[in-house]
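If I may wish for something, please walk me through the protein I am sending here so I can picture the backbone:
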Amino acid sequence: MTNLLKSQIIKEILISLAAIATYRLLLEISIPFINLNEFKVSSDSLYGFFIGDDFRNNFSIAALGIMPFVSAYILVEICSLFIPFLEKHRRGEYSGRKVLKKYALIITLLLSVIQAAFVIHGLQGILSPSGNSILVLKNNLQFIALVLTLVANVFVLLFITEIVTKYGGCNGISLLIFSGVCFSFIENISYFFKSTNEIPLNFFYEIIFSIVIFILLIIIPIFLLKNSSVVPTTHDSDTSVLNYFKLTSCLSGTVAIGYTTSIIMLPVTLMSFMGGFESLANSLNPGTFGYYFFSCIIVFLLSYLFGWLFLHPKKRLETLKRWGWSTTDPEQYSIDFIKRKFFLLHLPWAILLCSIIIFPSISIKYLNIPLYVGGASCLIIAFIGLDFISRFKLWNADVHEKLFKIAEFQDVHHATMIKNHLHNEGIKFFLQGYYHRHLLYFFGPYIPINLMIPIFEKERVEGIITQYYGKLGLLDNK
């Protein structure tokens, strides 16, 4: 490994570590005018209501995080399916995606202001157990200052993520999410050791059990991601150019879990407000058999629904045909064939999502083992970890210069075809955010898949994407 390569690695690592340190520092700075002593007394009830464990001891100036941007970008992506002037910008061209991102940033500003105002107003109305106010503002100017502080930090975090994405070697948002999950694990480990003092089981076996479950929740998802079935294709311009359309076991990501929780809790909340349905509402509360039963059914159905919608084989095969690709055996590799393969391949992933919902609670309630590690968090660690490993492999492949972003993709399946093609051509590259996007698919436009290459491969890669993939995602690099 040359000194140049070493310096590039060190630079990217230092930028990433600096970003994490800055993020954690912002989380430690409390908002002005808050009574921290009163807030800490009330934190056990407040932290779950507002944001999470990061704010259990203080309410940070970075309390809004990047969630306003995430929500805004998903909203823009959904609207672009129905609104004509947005729809024309989401057809794969990089210039169009830049326009959608601008709209997302505008909506981010609006959402941040609204959310900040509601949070501050909520804190003003909450009294600590001693009867004192947690947040006391003397005038509207202080209220506006607090709103601006929270909103400004949203864009500070977005600026940090852009720096990391461009210079740090990994996707900036992925890095912040990964670091947040890892710090949560540290909290969960401390809860584990505190809880084991009250559990009449052998401490050694509890640790072994938790470690085994953690490892399984890392290894199994990676195995399912790598498990795939392929549809061979050739290009009309040159039948010797072979590629394949890939079906993996992970075709829906984890979005089904979040929607399931919302679907289950909505009727519970409504019944609680209506009155007279308390017993029915209680039967669907987390920890009950009804909650587990209906959650598994909804997760199972949603995972198949989202997986099929994200795959959309008919439309995808039409796109490939427009680019000049066709299957080597049209009769065998038909839509019906893809349907059968999809149902069988996706079954283990749907079962995994169901187990992620129910197993931690079962472990705590019935096995008396305080397994506070969230299964969805393990998936995040596994898939973002794969992105880091992919970057390290390129470091180890004797690429001695800074990588150059040549294209940006929003579709995992199309990115996979280009990935296969570049591998076949022996081109060294890195798909930044590729594996993380497998957890999100359509609902992850804020994690673009960036094609990073050495500068000397620029003309060659541009030629391949132009000839075989309709200039999909190519940047306007002059």
User: Anything to note?
Assistant: Strands lie at 228-235, 238-248, 325-327, 403-409, 430-432, 449-454. The two ends are 32 Å apart (CA to CA). DSSP finds 17 helices and six strands in the chain. Residues 201-478 form one domain.
